[in-house]
Amino acid sequence: MQIIIKNVLLIIIGLGMSHLSYAELLWTPKPVMKEAKTKAAKPADAHAGHQQHRSREKAFYLQDNKNTNVKYITPALEILTLTHQGQLDKYVLPDSGMDNYHALVAERKTDTSHESSLRYAYMRGKPSGHSPENLVTNHKLPLEIVPEPMIREHLRFYSSIKHSYKVLFEEKPLIDSWVILKTSNGSTIDSKTDSRGKVTFTLPEDFQNIKPGRRANKPAEFILRTVHIANNITYKTNFSAPYSVNPSHWKSNSGGILALSVGFISGIVVMRKHNKKTNENMKKKKVKGKAL
Fold first, then answer.
1. How far is Cα 118 from Cα 238, in angstroms, rounded to an integer?
2. Number of domains in the chain
3. CA-CA-CA-CA torsion for 281, 286, 291, 292, nearest 10 degrees?
4. Same domain, 138 and 241
């Protein structure tokens, strides 16, 4: 029975597709399609300050955004307007003036279905005075995946680290519900929620060509999906976020390179000392031979 339910869930959320970014309601940091190049000239009176401000804009893209209701919630739980820009489902996040996580919420409803997508974006600004837990635990969707806890500003979702999430339906824990994790690197994991509606995943070690240094390893994306059917309505939701290479990998790589470098340099020093000593011994032998 569990296998049948799991297979039905897989069919409903479309995990038969080969790529993370298939057509579904989903927040992403980059567009699926490359943005069309335009030859429109910039206004002659454009100021450098304005251009710098534009370069600092933070934007996200909402896949398959037709007939959706979009909300942008601040740390103070204020709802700001998000407007769609361009042809690539781009939404530029307005400046709330607050430092901390902001919630991106998208919903689409019909008589028989409810789709939703949730993501948290960290914005810079003045200290908000609000804990991110206020925003994360605030009820936003009928079916919602809640990180427990949400990562702090200077932390990240890392590979090989366990992270827990709670699945809520109408603000109550959803028990024995399948949750599926998929990464943009191609990994897929599934599990069921426990008696508290909680599920735990260890983010996979699926990064290739890991390099020394944090900035040398670009983050990947992971997405959690779940489905629930109630009152003849199919509820489908997802939660997406970036995750990074576990620091132990690139630190160990750095350490390995450093060790190799030290060993190489030490070898050169030893060889030079050895050659110097050998040359001195040969000179001494030559002097003794001439004396005889």
1. 6
2. 2
3. 100
4. yes
Q: Are residues 77 and 217 in the same domain?
A: yes
Whether residues 142 and 258 share a domain: the answer is no
pLDDT tens for residues 212-250? 877 788 999 999 999 999 999 999 999 999 999 988 876
Query: Tens digits of per-residue pLDDT, 133-149?
Result: 999 999 999 999 999 98
Percentage, residues of the chain above pLDDT 90 = 52
CA atoms within 13 A on the CB side of 28: 22
Tokens of residue 86, six digits? 């361009």
Backbone angles phi, psi at 131, to 5 degrees: -75, 145
Same domain, 155 and 61: yes
Q: How many CB atoms lie within 10 A of CB 27?
A: 25
> In terms of domains, do 290 and 217 share one?
no
Beta strand 172-173 with 59-63 is unpaired
Shared domain for 225 and 285, answered yes or no, is no
Q: What angle do CA 11, 61, 130 make, to 5 degrees?
A: 100
- Tell me the CA end-to-end span of the chain in Å, nearest whole number: 100
Cα atoms found within 13 Å of the Cα of residue 61, Cβ hemisphere only: 17
Which residues, 6 or more positions from 122, have their beta carbon under 8 angstroms from its beta carbon?
100, 101, 102, 153
> Residue 46 corresponds to which amino acid?
A
Q: Which residue has the tokens 């949730």?
A: 118
Q: What is the CA radius of gyration of the chain?
A: 28
Domain extent for 116: 2-39+47-245
What six digits make up the tokens of 203?
Answer: 């983010």
Residues 62 and 79 in one domain: yes
Mode of pairing for the β-strands spanning 98-109 and 90-92? unpaired
Residues 212 and 282 in one domain: no
